[in-house]
Structures are given as structure tokens and as C-alpha cells.
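User: I'll paste a sequence; please echo it back and then give the predicted structure.

Assistant: Echoing your sequence first, then the prediction.
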Amino acid sequence: MSLPALVDQISNCELCPRLRGHCREIARKRKREFANQEYWGRPVPGFGDPAARLLIVGLAPGAHGSNRTGRVFTGDASGDWLYRALHDYGWASRPTSQSRQDDLVLTDCYITAAARCAPPDNRPTREELNRCQPYLAAELRLLESVRVVLTLGQIGWEHWLRTAGWWERLGVTRRPQFAHGRETNLPDGTVLMSSFHPSRQNTNTGRLTRPMWYGVFERLRTLLPAGHLQRASPSAPRE
């Protein structure tokens, strides 16, 4: 399987009836602010550079963000925090991500999520996460150059550890603990970095501040110095 084929497979997934119904209902009703826009309303695939050394794993699409735009971390406040930092540190060609057609290019970075559909109350069930797990596993096989993984939030952190096989291999005694800014060197040489998710719940309450957030990206850039040639991100999923 290629990344473009995987993008199409994810975009057309129907494995979770609860999530699919929720996303379609949101797309039908729409938020007043976006009443004149056509919502994506489908599972949201990953996005970025196929030769990325940096992999970012979030939780799930936002109801009126990625579920509207069809691109991960695009069209809401969480995405504003993420793409601004990626641009400031040289991974993104633009400081904002507004739509699948905005010509944004990621270099040396790929962004994905634990769940591909917007869940009610931002809480996918364990069963729904398990159904999504093969998609992340496929991305991990295809993204052969990944050296550093940034997980956003505890669910993204645990989902990546389980999918990559480290949850069981390391066991309780050696398994890394989730904490903002915690860095773990795994036995295969991969560096795992964890961060609080840049959700409004964290940024509006001060649990995650700009200095805390930018400190993570400062360290990531130290681990992955710039210098790779710019590559085009995979094409957006077909309509």
C-alpha cells in the first residue's frame, strides 16, 4: 500500500457507526459561523511529508475543524497553535492551515491522529480506537524515515505506544510515563516526546502556555536539525 492509497482508504472508512453518524450529523447541521461551507464529514487521514523524520500524533478531528476541512489539525484553535509552531521552526510553509486547498506544504513532518473521526465530547471509545489502530500501524510502516515522535495528549501518547508495540514490549516497569515535555529514548533509537494537547481546554486555562509549547519545538529542532530539501505533501483525499 502507498500513502495516497491509505489516505483514500481512511477517507472512506465506515467501521464505527456511532462516529460516522455523529460526523454526518455535524456536517448536516453545521456551525453558524460556517453555515455557507460544505463540511468534509468523513474520516480524516494523515497529512505531510512521506520522508518525514518527525511524526506528530494527536487525538481526533475537531467537530468544526478537521471534520469541516478534511485536513488534520486544520480550521480550529488547536491547529492554529500547531501550525504556527511548525512554521516558526521550519516544518511548515505557512503559519496557518485553513483548508485542503491552501497550498500548505510540510517538510520533514507528518501529522496524524489516534482516531480519524470527530467523536462526541472528544472521547472515542477504546473499541473505536482499536478499529482505527491498523491505520496508524500502516502509516508507521510507510513512514520509514521517522526518528522522533511527538504525541499530543495522553490518548495519542498511549495509542502510539500500543500501535508501535512498545506498550507490551517495555511492560509496566520500563514503560515511559506521560508528562509535558518528557523525552524518552526507545531501544530502537526512536525518540518519543510527549506534550499536553493544544486544545482550548488546556490553552485557555493556562495548563499549556506558549513558552511550554515552544519549548517542545525548540527541543525537537535540536533533535532534528533543518537542512532537508523541501518535498511536496501527499495530495489531499479525493472528494
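The radius of gyration is 17 Å. Residues 3-223 form a domain with the Uracil-DNA Glycosylase, subunit E fold (CATH 3.40.470.10).
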